[in-house]
Amino acid sequence: MSFMTSIEPDTSPSTAARAARTSLAALLATAVWLGIAFGLVRGQGCEGGMECLGDALLIIFGCLLAAAVTMWPLLVLFRVRPAWPVALVGPVVFVCFAVAVIHLEMAADWPGGWVLAILLAYAGAAVLVDRRANRGAKLVVLLIAAAALATRLR
To answer: Is the peptide bond before 82 cis (omega within 30 degrees of 0)?
Structure first.
């Protein structure tokens, strides 16, 4: 009787590669949908001022929601497997980071704070749902999200 062991290399990408792919997908979705939002706001004839603020905010938040919804197909396209947990956890982590962006008033000083929050949120979500990621990495992501959320509580 012979026992054979099969040693096959793990061809799935590392946790860091999954996080990078997820961040690129989030950047693409956000750029496309915010570009659409910018075009819609400009198409209404609003050049500035408070008269179109409500419509502009509704369009922007609608496009951010559309970006979150379209993340799953993008993650599949970018070969992030499994894609659906990352697509579900990413917006939750983003809410934590968005609270910090709003509280620290980074949005007013540096609009890139929102983009950075989205990139970090989806990269963190990729780490959180990866079964191969060590507990320390997951704990770091959770602590950063908790600290970002706690900035509002101070």
So the answer is: yes
Q: Residue 9, CB half-sphere, CA atoms under 13 Å: how many?
A: 3
Contact 46, 55 (CB under 8 A): yes
Contacts of 117 (CB under 8 A, 6+ apart): 94, 97, 98, 100, 101
Contacts 24+ apart (CB under 8 A), 110-116: 115/27, 115/30
Q: Over the stretch 78-115, which tens digit does the pLDDT of each residue have?
A: 988 888 898 888 888 888 887 777 776 665 666 677 77
pTM: 0.73
Look up tokens 């793990």; give the residue: 10
Residue in the block written with tokens 């799953």: 72
